[in-house]
Amino acid sequence: MSRIVVTTLGTLGDLHPMIAIALELRQRGHEVMFVTHQVYQSKLTALNFEFHPCAPISRP
Fold first, then answer.
1. Is 44 in contact with 23 (CB distance < 8 Å)?
2. Does this model's pTM top 0.90?
3. Which of 16, 17, 26, 46 has the least CB density, counted as fewest CB within 10 Å?
4. Three-state DSSP state, 41
C-alpha cells in the first residue's frame, strides 16, 4: 500500500481530525507518519505512528 505523510501545524483541534483519518488509513493497510510540532510526539507515538518534528517557524 501507500506511505502517507500527514502534517498539521495547528492546535489539537487540527491534530485530532488528522489522527482519525490516519487511523482509518492505517486500518486500510497504509503506512502513516506525522510531521508536526514536537509537543504532540508522545500522543502520536502512543498511537504507534511514526513521528518527525517539524522545524520551528522563524519570524523576522
1. no
2. no
3. 46
4. helix
